[in-house]
Each structure stands twice: as C-alpha cells, then as structure tokens.
Amino acid sequence: AKEQGRNSYQFYTEGMQDREMLRLELDKDLSQALANDEFVLFFQPQLDLQTSQIHSAEALIRWQHPRRGLLSPAEFIPLAEESGRITDIGRWVVLAACRQLAKWKGTRFEQLRIAVNLSGRELDDEELVDHIREALVSEDVPADRLEVELTEEIFIQNIEHNLNQLSRLRQLGVHLAIDDFGVGYSSLGYLRDFPVDLLKIDRSFITDVTERHDDAVITRAVINLAHNLGIGVVAEGVETEEQLNFLRHHQCNLVQGYLISRPIPVEDLESALDNGILL
Ligand code: C2E
Ligand code: CA
Ligand code: CA
Ligand code: CA
C-alpha cells in the first residue's frame, strides 16, 4: 500500500510538472501569437424570436496554434490574464470586430451587431475606452453596432473604476450586456445604478429549463426582470426545440446556442445566412 501511495504521488507530481511545462510553453508562444497573426474570431449568431432574424453575433476567440491546432479560450485566456497579455489580445479582438463590421457595410449583413467579451482584467486598462473609440473611428462603424459582454465580477471589485469605465463606454454608444447572468454573486443594485442594455441568462439555467421547475422559475423571473427594467434578454446554451419553445412562450428576446449554430468562421456564418440555413 505504501509502494502504491508513493507511485500515485509520483504520478501526481509528474502530472503537475507536465501541466506546468505546457503552461510555460503556451505562455512563451502567446508572446508571439499576435505578431504571427494566430488569433481568429469565430461567430455565434443570436436569433431574434420576434422577427425570426439573426440579430447579432458573439465573437469568440480561437488560437490557431502552430503545433497544437485550434485552441479554445479556456486553454489560453486565463494564462493571458495572469501575464497581462490579455490587454493586447483584447485590443486585437475589438479591432478585428470593428474590421468585420466595416466589411459588412453596404452588404445584407450591415444590420448585424457584434458582441465581444471583455474580462474584468481588461477593464483595468485606463486606455481601453480610448482604444475602442479609435477602433470605431478608424473603421468608420457606428458605435451601436458593437456590444460589450461583461460578467458580474466587475460589480464586486474595483466598482467605482469599473462603473466609470462602463459609463464612458455607454457614452460612446456601445451596447452593454451582462454575461452569465445569475451566477455572479453580485448584488442587483447595479441594474438600478447603471445603464445595462441586455441580460444574458447563463447556460446553467437553460440546460434543464424544460425539466426542472426551479430553473424554469428562475428563467421566467430573469426575463420578467429584464422586461420590467426595459432591457433585452438573451438565453445562452439553447440546444433543443423544447428549450426554444419555452423561451419563445415566455417572450425571451434572443436565443443563442448549438440549436441555432455553433460558433463558426465568418465565411460559414455568411453562407449560412445567405442560404437561409440558420433557424
Ligand atoms: P462565454 O462568453 O460565456 O461564451 C459562451 C461559451 O459557450 C462559448 O465557449 C460557446 O462556444 C459555448 N456555447 C455556446 N452555445 C452553446 C451550447 O448550446 N451548448 C454548450 N454546451 N456550449 C455553448 P467558448 O467559445 O469556448 O468560450 C469560452 C469562454 O471564453 C467565453 O464564455 C468567454 O468567457 C471567454 N472568451 C471567448 N472569447 C473571448 C475574448 O475574445 N476575450 C475574453 N476576455 N474572453 C473570451
Ligand atoms: Ca460571452
Ligand atoms: Ca456566457
Ligand atoms: Ca462564461
């Protein structure tokens, strides 16, 4: 038993060493990734249940790693937040989104809005808002085509600084969405003090919304909360027709999830829209 214990201990430390090696390797590669143009935005459409049109698309970053293939944000965003590289990555994301909006001008995709994700760490950057303004100006796109998704964590720490950043963003005309709504442990007071445009109901409430009474109650309550505040509401992680029907019945404004589309390259989004393949 002693022997076994030692072996499993060694196994454990080797696992940790492997992970630490991978972390160091990725961190080193991350320092080159922007210069080598290795990031790409995938887009996941949001369906407007009232008009049955695709209303917007969330931009989700991927890293086309030279040896490891396409990496998901979970594999490198936390690392980039630790090292501070997230600031430059975030700037690239905003610029890439604005460039895409510029490309859509004069096409049938002109009305699409793009939502980008910003972490609390990115909000720390004093130049963030100036940078977003410059990106909108240089690409000559209206600010209301751009939406910023933030999680409730920003209402827990650095509140004064974050609220100031958000007002400046809002003054630009950029839309603000609260991502993963309902799992953030923050007070609801910010909804009173702050001009939010959209709540995104977290996927964890949607997964069993048609099976579990409590999830259904919470989802209906969030939809009502948003509507009574005069703001929009999106359900994330919609995977079944039953979930879609529930959300339609309860007047959720927008739905997003694998049922409508996975996150896909922009060319695929455009051809899906052209061919009417999307729901
Ligand atoms: P998120 O903002 O909550 O994005 C939703 C995640 O759920 C995405 O994962 C998406 O692919 C996935 N998803 C969408 N529909 C469904 C569904 O129907 N079922 C299931 N099971 N999953 C679904 P992804 O693309 O891996 O992104 C993970 C997280 O990484 C995002 O969570 C966001 O927090 C972060 N992230 C992505 N892009 C960026 C970025 O440009 N900047 C920053 N700071 N964070 C980003
Ligand atoms: Ca998001
Ligand atoms: Ca989310
Ligand atoms: Ca999330």
With strands numbered from the N-terminus, the spatial order across the biggest sheet is: 1-2-4-5-6-7-8-9
The N- to C-terminal Cα distance equals: 58 Å
Mean pLDDT: 93
In total, the number of strands is 9
Radius of gyration: 20 Å
Beta-sheet strand percentage?
15-25%
Main sheet properties: 8 strands, mixed, barrel
Oligomer: single chain
Helical content class: 40-55%
SS summary, helix count: 11
Secondary structural class: alpha/beta
Helix-strand pattern, N to C?
HEEEHHEHHEHEHEHHEHEH
Subcellular location: Membrane
Domain EAL: 23-277
Protein name: cyclic-guanylate-specific phosphodiesterase
Task: Describe the model.
The protein has 279 residues and is of the alpha/beta class. Helix content is 47%, strand content 19%. Strands 1-2-4-5-6-7-8-9 form an eight-stranded mixed β-barrel, surrounded by four helices. Helix 3 (86-104) packs parallel to helix 5 (128-139) and helix 5 (128-139) runs parallel beside helix 6. The radius of gyration is 20 Å and the shape is globular. One calcium ion binds at residues 58, 117, 149, 179. Residues 58, 117, 149, 179 line the site of one calcium ion (CA).
Protein traits:
single chain; 279 residues; alpha/beta; 8-stranded mixed β-barrel; 11 helices; globular; binds ligand C2E; binds calcium ion; cyclic-guanylate-specific phosphodiesterase
In short:
By secondary structure, this protein is an alpha/beta fold. Helices cover 47% and strands 19% of the residues.
